[in-house]
Amino acid sequence: MTDLQCGTSKIAGASFSLHPMADDFIEVIEGALNETDTSKVWMETDDVTTTARGKLIHVFDVTKSICLHAAKTGKHVSFQATYSVGCPGDSKSDAYLALDDVLSNTTQSDESHYAAAKFSLYPLGGGSYMETIYEQIEAMKRYVDVSHAHYSTKLSGDLLDIFTGLETVFQKTIDSGSNHTVMTVNISINSPSHK
After folding, report:
1. pLDDT tens, 152-182?
2. Which of 25, 69, 174, 187 pairs as cysteine with 117 (C-beta 3.0–4.6 A)?
3. How far, rounded to the nearest angstrom, does the alpha carbon of residue 169 sit from its chain's CA centroid?
């Protein structure tokens, strides 16, 4: 029988989609994937999303790198992801837990890429979840502009700063005692409406 207790798995994962608003969308997606070192995560793409599984630090490294490489094309790109760790229904299969925490991708960029995003944080398996959510929304203000939106929190600023904030608040939510943590993210990069 499957162990249905939250927090028993240290495997983190992200199910994500990248949508370039361009005729050469295939080249943009494949280019971003090919320029990203995915050797420290298990990854699989199906007809809906790509899933990356492994240590949280490497899952964020890979998804951040894919977004950054897509942003460098200058094309309007939309990125949606669901990050999760501690899922009670998770299994140890289809995952790669690298032995080290050394990042495989260079995420520094000479260019700044303005992005707008919305995120929702779900600390599951714990008691005072709203207090945890509000604390992490407040913590995001150290990285980017934060504003209210229905069913989510809106972020705007540099793409790398958004990812730094998202990874930080996700980890802090885990550290606060959330046994099963989920975060949904929608990011718009290089949108004409940003101008």
Report:
1. 999 999 999 999 999 999 999 999 888 899 9
2. 187
3. 11
